[in-house]
Protein backbone atom coordinates (compact mmCIF):
# COMPACT_ATOMS: atom_id res chain seq x y z
CA UNK A 1 0.00 0.00 0.00
CA UNK A 2 1.34 3.42 -0.95
CA UNK A 3 1.95 6.02 1.81
CA UNK A 4 -1.10 8.19 2.41
CA UNK A 5 0.73 11.40 1.59
CA UNK A 6 1.16 10.10 -1.97
CA UNK A 7 -2.47 9.02 -2.24
CA UNK A 8 -3.86 12.23 -0.72
CA UNK A 9 -1.22 14.95 -1.32
CA UNK A 10 -3.80 17.70 -0.77
CA UNK A 11 -4.36 16.72 2.88
CA UNK A 12 -2.35 18.17 5.76
CA UNK A 13 0.27 15.96 7.49
CA UNK A 14 -1.53 16.20 10.84
CA UNK A 15 -4.78 15.07 9.21
CA UNK A 16 -3.05 12.15 7.49
CA UNK A 17 -1.71 11.07 10.88
CA UNK A 18 -5.24 11.12 12.31
CA UNK A 19 -6.56 9.11 9.37
CA UNK A 20 -3.85 6.48 9.83
CA UNK A 21 -4.51 6.31 13.57
CA UNK A 22 -8.31 6.05 13.40
CA UNK A 23 -9.42 4.66 10.05
CA UNK A 24 -10.07 0.96 9.55
CA UNK A 25 -8.21 -0.56 6.59
CA UNK A 26 -9.93 -3.38 4.70
CA UNK A 27 -8.92 -5.48 1.72
CA UNK A 28 -11.97 -6.22 -0.42
CA UNK A 29 -12.05 -9.08 -2.95
CA UNK A 30 -13.28 -8.42 -6.48
CA UNK A 31 -17.05 -8.23 -7.10
CA UNK A 32 -17.96 -7.75 -3.44
CA UNK A 33 -20.84 -5.42 -2.55
CA UNK A 34 -19.76 -2.86 0.05
CA UNK A 35 -22.96 -0.81 0.24
CA UNK A 36 -26.49 -1.91 -0.65
CA UNK A 37 -29.58 0.15 -1.39
CA UNK A 38 -31.34 0.92 1.90
CA UNK A 39 -28.23 0.30 4.00
CA UNK A 40 -27.28 2.82 6.69
CA UNK A 41 -23.65 3.92 6.58
CA UNK A 42 -21.55 4.79 9.62
CA UNK A 43 -18.22 5.46 7.89
CA UNK A 44 -16.86 7.32 4.89
CA UNK A 45 -15.01 5.18 2.34
CA UNK A 46 -11.63 6.24 0.95
CA UNK A 47 -10.15 4.21 -1.91
CA UNK A 48 -6.47 3.31 -1.42
CA UNK A 49 -6.03 0.66 -4.12
CA UNK A 50 -8.29 -0.85 -6.76
CA UNK A 51 -11.56 0.40 -8.23
CA UNK A 52 -15.11 0.68 -6.88
CA UNK A 53 -18.26 0.84 -8.98
CA UNK A 54 -21.23 3.03 -8.02
CA UNK A 55 -24.54 2.01 -9.57
CA UNK A 56 -28.30 1.88 -9.21
CA UNK A 57 -30.19 -1.41 -9.29
CA UNK A 58 -33.87 -1.91 -10.10
CA UNK A 59 -36.25 -4.52 -8.69
CA UNK A 60 -35.30 -6.99 -11.43
CA UNK A 61 -31.59 -6.69 -10.63
CA UNK A 62 -30.66 -4.66 -13.72
CA UNK A 63 -27.79 -2.25 -13.06
CA UNK A 64 -27.30 1.35 -14.18
CA UNK A 65 -23.68 2.45 -13.92
CA UNK A 66 -23.17 5.90 -12.42
CA UNK A 67 -19.40 6.22 -12.03
CA UNK A 68 -16.20 4.54 -10.82
CA UNK A 69 -13.98 5.44 -7.86
CA UNK A 70 -10.20 5.27 -8.19
CA UNK A 71 -7.35 5.41 -5.62
CA UNK A 72 -7.19 8.74 -3.80
CA UNK A 73 -10.94 9.32 -4.14
CA UNK A 74 -13.71 9.22 -1.54
CA UNK A 75 -17.19 7.80 -1.92
CA UNK A 76 -19.45 10.88 -1.97
CA UNK A 77 -22.50 8.73 -1.19
CA UNK A 78 -20.88 7.48 2.01
CA UNK A 79 -19.93 11.04 3.00
CA UNK A 80 -23.52 12.25 2.61
CA UNK A 81 -25.33 9.25 4.07
CA UNK A 82 -22.96 8.89 7.02
CA UNK A 83 -23.13 12.57 7.97
CA UNK A 84 -26.94 12.71 7.71
CA UNK A 85 -27.60 9.18 9.02
CA UNK A 86 -29.55 8.38 5.86
CA UNK A 87 -29.95 5.11 3.99
CA UNK A 88 -28.03 4.69 0.75
CA UNK A 89 -29.94 4.95 -2.52
CA UNK A 90 -27.16 3.32 -4.55
CA UNK A 91 -24.98 0.21 -4.58
CA UNK A 92 -21.19 0.18 -4.22
CA UNK A 93 -19.20 -2.83 -5.44
CA UNK A 94 -15.51 -3.59 -5.93
CA UNK A 95 -14.48 -4.02 -9.56
CA UNK A 96 -11.20 -5.71 -8.59
CA UNK A 97 -9.44 -6.54 -5.35
CA UNK A 98 -9.32 -3.22 -3.54
CA UNK A 99 -8.06 -1.64 -0.34
CA UNK A 100 -10.29 0.91 1.37
CA UNK A 101 -10.15 3.01 4.52
CA UNK A 102 -13.27 3.50 6.62
CA UNK A 103 -13.40 6.81 8.51
CA UNK A 104 -15.85 7.04 11.47
CA UNK A 105 -18.57 9.67 11.07
CA UNK A 106 -17.73 11.52 14.29
CA UNK A 107 -14.21 12.24 13.01
CA UNK A 108 -15.52 13.52 9.69
CA UNK A 109 -17.56 16.18 11.47
CA UNK A 110 -14.57 17.23 13.58
CA UNK A 111 -12.25 17.43 10.59
CA UNK A 112 -14.62 19.71 8.64
CA UNK A 113 -13.91 22.53 11.11
CA UNK A 114 -10.43 21.45 12.23
CA UNK A 115 -8.73 20.94 8.85
CA UNK A 116 -9.28 23.19 5.84
CA UNK A 117 -7.72 20.58 3.58
CA UNK A 118 -10.41 18.05 4.56
CA UNK A 119 -13.14 20.66 4.04
CA UNK A 120 -11.90 21.41 0.52
CA UNK A 121 -11.32 17.71 -0.22
CA UNK A 122 -14.96 16.94 0.61
CA UNK A 123 -16.18 19.86 -1.53
CA UNK A 124 -13.98 18.72 -4.41
CA UNK A 125 -15.38 15.19 -4.06
CA UNK A 126 -18.94 16.49 -4.34
CA UNK A 127 -18.04 18.69 -7.32
CA UNK A 128 -16.30 15.87 -9.21
CA UNK A 129 -19.20 13.47 -8.71
CA UNK A 130 -21.70 16.14 -9.76
CA UNK A 131 -19.75 16.82 -12.96
CA UNK A 132 -19.52 13.09 -13.73
CA UNK A 133 -23.26 12.71 -13.30
CA UNK A 134 -23.89 15.70 -15.59
CA UNK A 135 -21.81 14.03 -18.30
CA UNK A 136 -23.74 10.80 -17.77
CA UNK A 137 -27.10 12.60 -17.98
CA UNK A 138 -26.01 14.33 -21.18
CA UNK A 139 -25.17 10.99 -22.77
CA UNK A 140 -28.40 9.34 -21.68
CA UNK A 141 -30.61 12.27 -22.68
CA UNK A 142 -28.93 13.68 -25.77
CA UNK A 143 -26.70 11.02 -27.35
CA UNK A 144 -27.53 8.23 -29.77
CA UNK A 145 -27.05 4.66 -28.57
CA UNK A 146 -23.88 4.19 -30.65
CA UNK A 147 -22.28 7.19 -28.90
CA UNK A 148 -23.44 5.95 -25.50
CA UNK A 149 -21.95 2.53 -26.23
CA UNK A 150 -18.54 4.01 -27.12
CA UNK A 151 -18.65 6.18 -23.99
CA UNK A 152 -19.53 3.14 -21.87
CA UNK A 153 -16.73 0.98 -23.31
CA UNK A 154 -14.17 3.75 -22.77
CA UNK A 155 -15.22 4.18 -19.13
CA UNK A 156 -15.10 0.44 -18.54
CA UNK A 157 -11.64 0.10 -20.10
CA UNK A 158 -10.28 3.03 -18.09
CA UNK A 159 -11.69 1.74 -14.79
CA UNK A 160 -10.45 -1.82 -15.36
CA UNK A 161 -7.13 -0.72 -16.90
CA UNK A 162 -7.53 -3.08 -19.83
CA UNK A 163 -8.48 -3.14 -23.51
CA UNK A 164 -10.47 -6.34 -23.02
CA UNK A 165 -14.14 -5.97 -22.05
CA UNK A 166 -15.18 -9.27 -20.46
CA UNK A 167 -18.93 -8.77 -20.69
CA UNK A 168 -21.67 -10.37 -22.75
CA UNK A 169 -23.72 -8.27 -25.14
CA UNK A 170 -26.71 -8.81 -22.84
CA UNK A 171 -24.82 -7.43 -19.82
CA UNK A 172 -23.88 -4.30 -21.75
CA UNK A 173 -27.45 -3.93 -22.99
CA UNK A 174 -28.78 -4.17 -19.43
CA UNK A 175 -26.45 -1.42 -18.21
CA UNK A 176 -27.38 0.83 -21.13
CA UNK A 177 -31.12 0.06 -20.88
CA UNK A 178 -31.11 -1.28 -24.41
CA UNK A 179 -31.65 -4.67 -26.07
CA UNK A 180 -29.05 -7.33 -26.84
CA UNK A 181 -29.92 -7.14 -30.55
CA UNK A 182 -29.23 -3.40 -30.72
CA UNK A 183 -25.92 -3.68 -28.84
CA UNK A 184 -24.78 -6.64 -30.97
CA UNK A 185 -25.57 -4.72 -34.16
CA UNK A 186 -23.66 -1.62 -33.00
CA UNK A 187 -20.68 -3.67 -31.85
CA UNK A 188 -20.59 -5.41 -35.22
CA UNK A 189 -20.47 -2.02 -36.96
CA UNK A 190 -17.56 -0.96 -34.75
CA UNK A 191 -15.80 -4.22 -35.57
CA UNK A 192 -16.29 -3.60 -39.30
CA UNK A 193 -14.58 -0.23 -38.79
CA UNK A 194 -11.70 -2.17 -37.18
CA UNK A 195 -12.18 -0.29 -33.90
CA UNK A 196 -12.59 -3.50 -31.91
CA UNK A 197 -12.58 -7.29 -32.20
CA UNK A 198 -15.42 -9.52 -31.01
CA UNK A 199 -15.19 -12.99 -29.52
CA UNK A 200 -17.35 -14.94 -27.08
CA UNK A 201 -18.13 -12.68 -24.07
CA UNK A 202 -15.02 -10.60 -24.83
CA UNK A 203 -14.51 -7.35 -26.71
CA UNK A 204 -10.98 -6.24 -27.54
CA UNK A 205 -10.64 -2.49 -28.04
CA UNK A 206 -8.11 -1.54 -30.70
CA UNK A 207 -5.77 1.42 -30.40
CA UNK A 208 -7.73 3.53 -32.88
CA UNK A 209 -10.93 2.96 -30.85
CA UNK A 210 -9.78 5.67 -28.45
CA UNK A 211 -9.63 8.17 -31.31
CA UNK A 212 -13.41 8.05 -31.55
CA UNK A 213 -14.29 11.42 -29.99
CA UNK A 214 -17.10 11.18 -27.45
CA UNK A 215 -16.97 14.06 -24.95
UniProtKB/TrEMBL annotation:
Q: Which PROSITE patterns match?
A: CNMP_BINDING_3 (PS50042), HTH_CRP_2 (PS51063)
Query: What is the designated name of this protein?
Result: CRP/FNR family transcriptional regulator
GO function terms (MF aspect): DNA binding
GO process annotations (BP): regulation of DNA-templated transcription
Q: Where does the record place the HTH crp-type domain?
A: 143-209
**Species for this entry:** Hydrotalea sandarakina
Entry keyword annotation includes Transcription regulation: yes
What are the UniProt keywords, alphabetically? DNA-binding, Transcription, Transcription regulation
Residue ranges of the Cyclic nucleotide-binding domain?
7-73
Keyword flag Acyltransferase: no
Amino acid sequence: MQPLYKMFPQLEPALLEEIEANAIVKTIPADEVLIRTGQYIKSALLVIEGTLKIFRENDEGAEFLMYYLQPGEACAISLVCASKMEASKVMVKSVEESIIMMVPIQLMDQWMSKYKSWYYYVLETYRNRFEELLILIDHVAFRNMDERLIFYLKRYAKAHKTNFINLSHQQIADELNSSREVISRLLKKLEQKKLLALSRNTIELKENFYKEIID
